[in-house]
Amino acid sequence: MKSDFLLAITQLSAEKNLPKEVVLATVESALVSAYRKESFAPNQNITVKIDPLTGKVKVMAEKQVVEKVIDSRQEMRLLEAKRQKADAKIGDLMMVEDTPADAGRIAAQTAKQVILQRLHEAENTAIFDEYASKAGDTLVGVVQRIEPKQITVDIGRVEAIMPASEQAYGERYRAGQRIKVYVVDVAKTAKGPAVIVSRSHPGLVRRLFEMEVPEVFNQLVEIKAVAREAGSRSKVAVGALQPGIDPVGCCVGLRGIRIQNIVSELNGEKIDVVAWDNEIATFIANSLSPAQVTKVILNEAEKSAIVVIPDRQLSLGIGKEGQNVRLAVKLTGWRIDIKSASDEEVERAEEVARKQAEHIKPEAVEKQPVAVPVSKIEEESVGKLPPAELIIEPAVKETPAKVEAVPEEQGVVVPLNVLDKVSEGDSVKLRFAEDLLPRREVIIDDKNKNKNKKKTVKGKDTAEDGIKLKGKKRRNVTDYESEEIDF
After folding, report:
1. What family is this (predicted)?
2. Could you tell me if 75 and 64 are in contact, meaning their C-beta atoms sit under 8 angstroms apart?
């Protein structure tokens, strides 16, 4: 039958959720401290052993073999030593059983404090080891307290802390709410192990895919990269490890049922699943989905890429406040510059024109003749002639050439002295070409008359006899009229 002491140790191990061997080792070390204060020397080497079946306590103390005992706690006679070891001699150190009959009150109080302290340390160590192995995993917790700078979440044997930086933007928490959290870090502190959890870490999306997609859990589909802006949007690059498997279709599921469960867990956060590719140009084009990419120009030295997108999808490729491009940069690890197709064509045309200009300009400079001043040529030509041969020609007076009169096609010849006559006071009547031509009759149809009648506007100023006043509207002239002008 087990003793009461052994039953108490078993109950204590169950309450603290610790192995029985750990509790026994803790009690043994606590009894060593208690017995050393009460029955042994301060620096004496002693050990305590507890029988796990009967619960009997046995204390072993180290003593030195001497001829004459002065301190019985640390020394023993040679005769007693030979009873335990036949070849014992003076000066030997031996471990002998020296269990005290009863411990005092102070020793019992010391043992109690040491046991509680050691049990607390053992419990903290066990908790740290348990959750340190769960770092990078997803746990289900219950919100306990909501503070301005952090939220306390109960995840089992310990209360985890979720700082404000690890909370998803736009999420609201309440006490008693069950949430899934991602274990970011586990650290030892003076108050015990501190577990930091997160709702904004990209690893949470990865673990949710492993929980919802069997192909990801069975390693048929691998999640290559995850880029996330918590509470808004995420991009996940997936690739198939086995031929014949559609990685994007496996993650989305039939009618999107799998991806919908993940979106619901993240409180409506949008998730884009893109196909991963070994070719970085193809991968960059896929990462900018849902926009369609026309061309990708890579610069491997600077690890940058220029992506050309049609004009109608330029805003879709950039995203709201550049969100789509930012996530693509995080997903691929390359710097991405986006240009519209029209801008790319303009730049290409300017580049071609510049190259052509650079190619033609040197040839034009080579073929261009050197300009020589005219005065210099005249001086050289004059200087070459001998002075005796210089000929001075007399000036020739040019006579003006006669200008033949060009007959006019039509019209009336007016004498040049008309103005002289006008000045003298005589009046001259001028006649126009229309007066000399024969008159022609203009036939006006009834239809034209009706149209003219319809075009008349009521309320216009007219004469008393109904005749339209001159100057109000252009009138039809049936025949030519001659006008006389007096000078």
Report:
1. Belongs to the NusA family.
2. yes
Which one, of 320, 339, 317, lies nearest residue 328 by Cα? 317
- Domain co-membership, 143 together with 205: no
Question: 231: closest CA among 289, 287, 168?
Answer: 168
Tell me the C-alpha distance between 228 and 206, whole Å: 11
Q: 269 and 213, same structural domain? A: yes
227: CATH? 3.30.300.20
Amino acid 197: pLDDT: 94
Host H or E run for residue 280 = helix 280-287
Of the candidates 77, 78, 79, 74, the one whose C-alpha atom is nearest the C-alpha of residue 63 is: 74
Give pLDDT tens digits for 134-161.
989 999 999 999 998 899 999 988 899 9
**Number of domains within the chain:** 4
pLDDT in tens, 102-138: 655 666 677 778 778 888 888 888 889 889 989 899 9
Q: Strand runs (DSSP E) across 278-373, as ranges?
A: 295-299, 304-309, 335-340
The reply to whether the predicted model has a pTM over 0.85 is no
CA triple 225-226-231, angle to 5 deg: 175
> How buried is 387 (Cβ within 10 angstroms: 0-12 exposed, 13-18 middle, 19+ buried)?
exposed
CA 52 to chain centre: 61
Q: Distance between CA 206 and CA 182 in Å, rounded?
A: 10
Here the tokens at position 274 are 């893109």
| Sign of the Cα pseudo-torsion (75, 79, 80, 82, in order) | positive
Residues contacting residue 359 through CB under 8 Å, at least 6 positions apart: none
**Sequential DSSP letters for 370-438:** PP--HHHHHHHHHHHS-GGG---PPP-PPPPPPPPPPPPSSS----TTHHHHHHHT-------HHHHSP
Residue 481, burial from CB neighbour count under 10 angstroms (0-12, 13-18, 19+): exposed
In degrees, to the nearest 5, what angle opens at C-alpha 23 toward C-alphas 21 and 24?
65
> Is 110 among the domain residues?
yes
